[in-house]
Design a protein that fits this description.
This protein is α/β, with parallel strands linked by helices. The chain contains 2 helices and 8 strands. It has helices spanning about 15-25, 80-85; strands at about 10-15, 30-35, 40-45, 45-55, 70, 95, 100-105, 110-115. The radius of gyration is 15 Å and the shape is globular. The protein starts with 8 loop residues before the first strand and ends with a strand.
């Protein structure tokens, strides 16, 4: 049996790589570790997020609540993290009765979640 020891990266397809890179680095604090034409690989701690330029004319589609990327954050409160995202024009939502859930979307509509205080 293969014993997977973690996730190296996930891939998100984006309509505008430059815009997506700016969102993930300037708002979410990820760092670029490799970049080429149409691809940007970012680090979020020890895990990676790869942004790939969308191919073809088909529109990007996003899923429901179970189709999202959850990110751990080192600190902050619901209020401070929400305020930080909103200061960048990001609309923030949550889950009723759960003060540890902050949901939002990236510029391509991918659903993201911040996990903190757990």
């Amino acid at each position: 049996m293969i014993a997977a020891s973690g996730i190296d990266h996930i891939v998100l397809h984006c309509s505008d790589i430059g815009r997506a890179k700016k969102f993930y680095t300037e708002i979410l604090g990820m760092t670029v570790y490799r970049e080429s034409d149409g691809q940007v690989f970012l680090r979020a701690g020890r895990q990676g997020v790869a942004l790939f330029k969308k191919q073809g004319e088909a529109p990007l589609t996003t899923g429901n609540d179970l189709n999202h990327l959850a990110l751990n954050v080192a600190g902050g409160t619901y209020e401070s993290l929400k305020a930080e995202l909103e200061s960048h024009g990001v609309t923030v939502g949550g889950r009723a009765g759960d003060d540890h859930c902050i949901y939002f979307r990236d510029p391509d509509g991918h659903r993201l979640q911040l996990m903190f205080g757990c």
